[in-house]
């Protein structure tokens, strides 16, 4: 299609956005006309329509009582000082996969943590529009066949709270992509029914397979509580070198550039650390 060199006007009725930090908790209804998500997720406290404004109580599918309390609980699970997830500045960049309206990322900002919130344009329409209107860093995207547009070792923590992703598909290629963008010693927070699958046979099977895949990737469980498990990535190549020669997933070849991220197909392999790291 022909590229147009012109300015895109604001939609009819669009109001000047509410400024941060107020925008974390409220935006103009007129700026986001599709509000059916509010009624659909009302029991999970995602958002509430109040006349000309949409309010965000801070809830989510997994954290009905607020993202702030959920974040404190994660810090407590990891034993971080002062119950702060930033771990005294050691956690600065977070990837939130399947972020909803990005309340998790919104409540990380006071901790000096920048979260890149990622969500698809799905049955809930464009959730990212809510996140951007709130002033939260976010992008429309999905874990599919191509690498995320970030170099390797970009994030200290990745987060999936009921993100509706099949991490086991295609030899675990999606979880291996998360591994690629995590830094040495990085964390993967997984909040999902599978994490406490004691009675449901389907969830129990998924959890067993997920645990097996993580173990083969040399991830270890840092903490597990209720519906949440936190894995940690190894700091060195030591575990990788101790694996059996034909262990799966395989190590990526020497010709693979883990930092190549633009329009590059994902690979179902583990990215080793270079000698520099």
Automatic annotation (TrEMBL):
Regarding the membrane, this protein is recorded as:
Single-pass type II membrane protein
- Subcellular location, record wording: Golgi apparatus membrane; Membrane
Which keywords are on file for this protein? Answer: Glycoprotein, Membrane, Methyltransferase, Signal-anchor, Transferase, Transmembrane, Transmembrane helix
What EC number(s) does this enzyme carry? 2.1.1.-
Taxonomy, superkingdom: Eukaryota
Q: Which GO terms describe its biological process?
A: methylation
Pfam families given in the database record: Methyltransf_29 (PF03141)
Q: What Gene3D superfamilies does the entry give?
A: Vaccinia Virus protein VP39 (3.40.50.150)
GO CC aspect terms: endosome; Golgi membrane; trans-Golgi network
InterPro entries recorded for this chain? Put_SAM_MeTrfase (IPR004159), SAM-dependent_MTases_sf (IPR029063)
EC category name: transferase
UniProt GO MF annotations = methyltransferase activity
Q: Main location per UniProt?
A: Golgi
Question: Record's family?
Answer: Belongs to the methyltransferase superfamily.
Q: What is this protein called?
A: Methyltransferase
